[in-house]
């Protein structure tokens, strides 16, 4: 069994190297086996034409939530790569800040499927704004990462 | 029939209000009826843990390419909203710069379906790195945009 | 508010006209506001090359589960049309029989998003074999159905 | 290099074991490296409530088209499994008969991504009715097929 200290350390180290997460101001708020939670403030630099977060910005954090949820259940030496994802946008991405939850739906040796949800938060109220299903592949060795 | 001047002006005006596009350094390189092309330089601030563009960054530009392709064929008073998108990541997002093409696959009164492709470019060579299919909804009136 | 008798009658009447459901031997086991459940026996005529249910067969029932879940929350005069769906296949579709659950994730005036799950059942044990997210459109008038 | 005789024989042998294809009356009309084409007559037993082919029926043949396109470029000993697919339904599935084309978009050692299109045909006219993107995994050994 994988100890929580072990995967938590790996997730935090990898997350720290994801420049996109730092640029967007995303923080890890929880790490568990098969599940991660992130928080992010509203970011005016990443909006669309109506002033809400761009759907792609929301998808970026949902994708990382899926990838790191998968990372918690994969072999320590594996790297994770997103093969594909699908997102539905249910409401405009507005809020003072946002919460993202990624969960493993099915863990496999090579392929892991994750679901994630994004919530907009305003004055303590939370609203589901988007969902994602992502297929994540475990790759070992630099060759794999380079495809 | 919609004159090209008309939709080109609308696309450029809306694009200029998408802060996310400016932040990522995306430029419009072509606008035609049912099709747009964007260019973007490599952006270290939007990378994942291996130093390639984050899948979500790629998806952000693909989504805008789909949305503006749809915008060229919609009624002038309509706003566009992404209902959902699905992206496949075929190769690591590396390159000196990137090219994105969005095309209308099926235009409808309410719902328009678009395909988009992302290419990484290095020393004049181009490689397909990701594809997207997006479902875009035309909404009229502020109520629609607010859902 | 929509009375349960009303939508249940509509769902059953429409389902009875879906020849594909009869051909596959699918039965409605539950109808509630925003949720339906179907059952189906193993069907050798709808298998793939390894003798499991074909992924498309599973998707067919998942799609109907999504469509009828959406149907329960739509205006009585509206017809439902699947705009798109995405399914992940998590385990081989084997079992003596199968259970399908469709639920409304977000109901809208025009567009409703649903999630569905498929389970294989053997000797009382149940296993999640596939999931779907579907975008369903409400169309009114024959013109809409004909697109 | 894989000889065409070799993969054509493998595709035909596997296709003949897909009971679902026989039940739907699907025939192979072309096999090439990375591409297959199927034909199917209108099938009243597989329709939805308005008398058109059920979206799931269309998806079933699209999925097989993707799977066999992938099969042509995979190692002879590998079995193919659909990890996930996403389909957009662009027009009602009506016609005297239907044509389906599946193509490899990106072939990989483990994961292959395919696109497919479905066309309805009436009195010699052809109309695009649906598209699919599918992620196909090569699995070797019975253990893989059983997941």
Overall pLDDT of chain A: 93
The shape of chain A is: globular
Architecture (CATH level 2) name of chain A = Roll
Proportion in β-strands of chain A: 35-45%
Round the Cα radius of gyration of chain A to an integer and report it. Answer: 15 Å
Q: So, the CATH homologous superfamily of chain A?
A: Hotdog Thioesterase
Structural class by secondary-structure content of chain A: alpha+beta
Estimate nothing, just give the exact number of structural domains of chain A: 1
**Segments of chain A where pLDDT lies below 50 for 5+ residues?**
143-147
Oligomer: homotetramer
Question: CATH top level of chain A?
Answer: Alpha Beta
Strand order of the largest sheet of chain A: 1-2-4-5-6-3
Main interface: chain pair and counts: A-B, 39 and 39 residues
SSE string of chain A, helix = H, strand = E?
A: HHEEHEEEEH
Distinct helical segment count of chain A? 4
CATH topology of chain A: Thiol Ester Dehydrase, Chain A
Straight-line N-to-C gap of chain A: 29 Å
Helix content of chain A: 25-40%
Give a quick account of the main beta sheet of chain A: strands, pairing sense, barrel closure: 6 strands, antiparallel
């Amino acid at each position: 069994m994988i100890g929580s200290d072990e995967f938590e350390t790996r997730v935090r180290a990898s997350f720290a190297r994801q420049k996109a997460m730092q640029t967007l101001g995303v923080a890890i708020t929880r790490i568990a086996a098969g599940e991660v939670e992130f928080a992010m403030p509203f970011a005016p630099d990443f909006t669309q034409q109506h002033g809400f977060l761009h759907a792609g910005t929301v998808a970026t954090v949902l994708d990382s939530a899926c990838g790191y949820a998968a990372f918690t259940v994969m072999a320590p030496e594996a790297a994770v790569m997103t093969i594909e994802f699908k997102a539905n946008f249910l409401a405009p991405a507005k809020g003072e800040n946002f919460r993202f939850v990624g969960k493993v739906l099915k863990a496999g040796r090579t392929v892991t499927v994750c679901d994630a949800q994004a919530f907009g938060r305003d004055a303590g109220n939370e609203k589901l704004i988007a969902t994602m299903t992502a297929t994540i592949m475990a790759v070992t060795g630099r060759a794999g990462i380079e495809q």
